[in-house]
Specification:
By secondary structure, the protein is α/β, with parallel strands linked by helices. It is built from ten helices and ten strands. Helix 6 (159-179) packs parallel to helix 8 (196-211) and helix 9 (288-299) packs across helix 10 (320-340). The protein is globular, with a radius of gyration of 19 Å.
Length: 341
Amino acid sequence: MTGPIPTTVVGSLPQPNWLLDRDMLRDRLPARVRTPELWRVPEELLEAAQDDATLLAIRDMERAGVDIITDGEIRRESYSNRFATALDGMDLDNPATIMSRAGKPNKVPRVTGRIRRREPVEVRDLRFLREHTDRKVKITLPGPFTMSQQAVDEHYGDVRALAMDLADAVNEEIRDLFAAGADIVQIDEPWVQSRAEQAREYALEVIDRAVEGVGGTTALHSCFGYAHMVHDRPNGYPILAELNGTKVDQLVIEAAQPDLDLSVLEELPDKVIALGVLSLGDLDVEPDEVIADRIRAALRHVDAQRLQVAPDCWMKYLPREVAVGKLAAMVRAAETVREEL
């Protein structure tokens, strides 16, 4: 990491079209159940192909100069279903249907038994990342509140109890990820914003349970949805200041595309902020000075030692060359602002 204002990513990078059918990915809602039809590679060759594509993503982030990198979430059909569908208690063969954040029907697992993590899910992913870079590494997990909203409960009869058991499963996974060498583990909680009233009832409680006693740096990411699907975004978060009271160390929020009023950062005095300074709503690589101005604007409200910069989410829908170009521009802009400091 180079001084203050390190650069990072939210999680995903574009998956190669030889690995995954990107047209099919763009034309459907994010997967909540398993969707093997997205992969172009036969099952017996899939893990090796995903390893190769992950290595490309690692090198792309290194080539762009990013300080804190992920595995690009290359092995995932969506940010959440790789972990959620590996848990006991989820019926994947007989999915239910709910309305997505975009207001469209989407298939989700049915919860038919008590949620339990039977084995580590992403530890191999993390070890592969750790073995192939000397940079700081972050790995992401879906948060317990969001997973509780992406399933139909037919067992608990109490969504808070479901979310609590999901939090226990996340907590077990986080502990194993730190033991395997993660520098940061991030939990993704986009549905905290789209279902703010339910989130106020129990989301903060289950987030704290997910990170209780894990012994490493934790981050919480929240957002307004995929840029290529959700075009009209509010310029403020329904729940943000409340997240300052959680036990996570960092908050990862998007700000560029929604044109967030950055004075809200003053309501987060206890957290490191990873701020979205790249808009993913178009394919243009922003000029370095535009990105630098976004960073300078943030510094009016948060100290440089508590600021990281990142893209908005999610990069997986961008063409690879655009994603790398945006990341490289972000790195150059951050370096410009560092020199000014």
